[in-house]
């Protein structure tokens, strides 16, 4: 899948966009594409990397809309599925991360990822995180960052997972608003589609619930995990109410 190319119609379906809207993005040069003769095509991995970057820069309202689109229809997962209990465990959360610089955070978060015993190649993950951060910071403001590799390799881990670290002091991680960051999620997914689903879910939780405050008030990994689970459940209740109203 990562090396597949898509037609305009296939890419629009993958992005949950109308073909005419994607065509506009092509004409404006806002989306990565390749001209093959008279046909516009899209590399799956480049397209998904583009979506991932755009998600991090969206406003809360647009994040909510993107989350609804990714988690609906035949191309999405079941909108009622709980991802946090499946992807994260209390022992994969560090409430007192000692990192004082961004490079140290990346190294320490990879070390935390190794605790899952799902990671095959620590060095490859670190390289992928560094490559992604050179492209553009994954810190989105409000003191939170969603670290991830630019591309997602099924051979990097035996299963997808999310780990979370909270630094003892906020550090500058490159957020566009200039704010420091103290909450660092690391997403390691086996494919781009799952990564986009999880990233949109976490961004929607960060913008649409009180989870960031609760994570900072929690004292242990168990308490931080409980805050994440409550946040996801609150978001799903909101989605459920919105679907009922829309019927």
Spatial separation of the terminal alpha carbons: 35 Å
Number of alpha- plus pi-helical segments: 10
Q: Which second-level CATH architecture of the largest domain applies?
A: 3-Layer(aba) Sandwich
- The CATH homologous superfamily of the largest domain is called Mannitol-specific EII, Chain A
Q: What fold name stands as the CATH topology of the largest domain?
A: Mannitol-specific EII, Chain A
The top level CATH class name of the largest domain: Alpha Beta
Give the oligomeric state of the chains in this entry, treating copies of one chain as homo and distinct chains as hetero: single chain
* Coarse morphology: globular
Number of domains: 2
Radius of gyration: 18 Å
> Helix-strand pattern, N to C?
EHHEEHHHEHHEEEHHH
Number of strands: 7
Task: Provide mean pLDDT, rounded.
Answer: 85
Strand content: 15-25%
Q: What portion of residues is helical?
A: 40-55%
Weakly predicted, low-confidence segments: 73-77
Walk across the major sheet and give the strand order.
4-6-7-5
Q: What characterizes the major β-sheet? A: 4 strands, mixed
């Amino acid at each position: 899948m990562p090396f597949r190319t898509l037609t305009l119609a296939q890419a629009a379906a993958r992005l949950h966009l109308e073909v005419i809207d994607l065509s506009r993005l092509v004409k404006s040069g806002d989306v990565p594409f390749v001209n093959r003769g008279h046909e516009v095509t899209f590399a799956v991995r480049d397209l998904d990397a583009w979506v991932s970057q755009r998600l991090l820069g969206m406003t809360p309202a647009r994040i909510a809309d993107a989350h609804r689109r990714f988690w609906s229809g035949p191309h999405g997962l079941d909108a009622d599925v709980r991802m946090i209990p499946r992807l994260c465990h209390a022992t994969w959360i560090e409430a007192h991360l000692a990192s004082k610089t961004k490079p140290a955070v990346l190294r320490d978060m990879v070390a935390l990822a190794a605790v899952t015993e799902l990671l095959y190649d620590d060095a490859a993950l670190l390289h992928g995180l560094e490559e992604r951060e050179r492209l553009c910071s994954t810190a989105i403001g409000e003191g939170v960052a969603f670290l991830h590799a630019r591309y997602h390799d099924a051979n990097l881990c035996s299963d997808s997972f999310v780990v979370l670290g909270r630094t003892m002091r906020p550090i500058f991680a490159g957020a566009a608003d200039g704010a420091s960051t103290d909450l660092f999620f690391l997403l390691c997914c086996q494919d781009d589609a799952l990564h986009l689903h999880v990233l949109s879910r976490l961004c929607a939780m960060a913008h649409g619930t009180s989870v960031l405050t609760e994570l900072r008030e929690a004292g242990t990994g168990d308490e931080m995990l409980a805050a994440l689970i409550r946040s996801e459940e609150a978001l799903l209740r909101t989605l459920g109410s919105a679907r009922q109203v829309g019927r």
